[in-house]
Each structure stands twice: as C-alpha cells, then as structure tokens.
C-alpha cells in the first residue's frame, strides 16, 4: 500500500493478478502491490515461524548470525551490495541514527539478493491505451473474488464487527480493500522484502523521479530493519511484493510501523498470516487518513454534470472533499440521489476510454480510501467489491 508510485501502475497491471493491479493508477497519485502464496503455505509458514521464533529473535538482535531463514524460490542474483558506497553510507546512518551494529548489517546485506524483476517492474510504462474504468473494474468485481470475499467475511465476521465497533469502518470497506489487494491473502507476494527494497533503494532504474524513488525505498528499507528489530523477527522472513508491500493488506513497512495493529492480541503484528491483524490495521489506516465514522451512507454518489463545464476546475481540488452540495450545484454538478446535507464532497471522474466519462461526488470516506492507493479507479473498485460481497452474502 501506501506511497509507491504511479509509476508501477501500468506495468503492474500487466503482470500482477491482484494488489499489483491495484497499484495501477489512472488518476492523480500513488501506490503499490504484490503477490503469491496459498493459504496452506501461509499456515505452514506460521507454524514454522512459531518453532523458530526464539532463534529468529536471537538472530535479529545479536546481529552475529543472521541467517536467510526463508527459503526463496525466485531468481535473485547474489550481489555484493557492500561494494556500493550508497549501501555503506546507509549502514553508517542506521548505526548513527538507530544504533544498529555495523557488522550485523554487513552480514545482512552480504546475504541480500539483487532482484532484476523488481527493477523491470518499476520502469516507467510505455504509453498505453486510454484509461477505462469499465475495463478496470472487471478485473476486481468478478465471481472468483466475490466468492473469496464471502468466505473471508464469514470466517472473520467477528473481527470485522469488532473493527467496525472500534474504528467505525464498515466491514464491506475492509473486505473490499483486502480483496482488491490480494484476493484475501491469496497473492501476498513471494519476494523477501529486504531483497526487493535493497534493490530498489540502490539500483532504481532511470526515471524522471529516480532520486525521490530511491529515497523512498531507502526509507522503507530502514523501516523494515526497524520493524524486524522491534518485533524480534528475522528481516529476511518478511515476504512481500516486488515493491516491498507486505501481507493481506499490502502495507509498506513504514505503514506497518505507523498504522499496524495487533488486532488478534497475540503479541505479534503479522499482516501475512493473521487476517485479524490485517482487518484491524486496514481500519486503523483509514481512520488515520480521514475516514469519518459519522458518515454512515455511501462514500460516493453518481452525478450528472452540466454541459457548461463550469465544474471542470473542481476536479483539481486534489484527493479531498472540500465542496458543499450548494457549491457543487452552482458549478453544475448534480448528484442523482439526494446527498446527506452535512459534510463536504469532491468531484470524481472515471474515464471510460472512448465511451463517456462517468462523474460521481464523493465524501471524506472515499478520499480516505484513495490515501491507501491514490487512484479513483482503485477506490471505486474497493467500494464496488465490498458491496458485491455484501450482496452475495445476503444471498
Ligand atoms: Ca497479531
């Protein structure tokens, strides 16, 4: 989730079934994605994790014997990251800022692999076809994902109810996000996060915003090390997408540190194996990004726009609800349904290729979802998938 770039977008779409496609961006701004591991595999990893927890903790904290505990089944080149000055500088900074032992980090980076596929995936996409919401939505609002959503909701109904009670985020929105990101944990990503983040932090390909991207991935690499230390896990045990997004909700390490919640209360924050932790963390993320529990209705309403196009500048207000229903009406944007009078709205346009663009008005809660992945297509997919799952459950 959080913060990767529009960049990945199109390429991710081409390559990834789930969250990565979510990363695809059609609108103004952000995010990530991932993927791959079957539930059975995850369960296995969980029990193995329990067995080795003590040793992982030792490894993570002593720094002497950090082992690449997680078997990797993808192509990654052994690369001596320590040859790069930027890596040595990073290690120095982790020492001075966060008290990490140099020798421990050198051992760690000595075991990191260079992931060429991550480099290929973040390269700017070639110009593609015009954006098309109706095409995009068919990838997410489809029978397999809806059926998986029903199973997930049934299995975790209690945790979803609890999240709604604690955070005020309805189950269907949480179900929509986890479904769009990873098909409920089916595609969480197989890369060791340390490998992909080290690769992107120090070998990001040529791109207009390369420096900013590298700084972002360096920061997430630091967050990975901080998270592993804080939670006593081997940093190599963290698996995620090509871009370092972790678990069922595809949180970047920094978002796990900032918004992750141990919602099942077992003392571990595990977004890959604990659906409850994923559910609580998604709800917490949304609330911290402007979700307003007072707005009980739909986060988004179909609208009609006047041919005058006086409303066009309203689309440039960013990912925020800043307009009163009056202001919208004055500018020629009319919600098809009556809007709840309280609250502010923003104009959302969904392009449909050669077909007419759809217009909607959205409140704070829709824009909170866009903070998860800065894309109107993404947020609308979340809303629609959640509704479809709810309807399917109702039978
Ligand atoms: Ca937990």
TrEMBL record:
Pfam families: SLT_2 (PF13406). The keyword Disulfide bond does not apply. Residues 1-21 form the signal peptide. Residues 26-63 are annotated as: Disordered. Residues 86-386 form the Transglycosylase SLT domain. Residues 41-59 have a biased composition (Basic residues). The keyword Kinase does not apply. Keywords: Signal. Residues 26-40 have a biased composition (Low complexity). This is Lytic murein transglycosylase B. It comes from Massilia hydrophila.
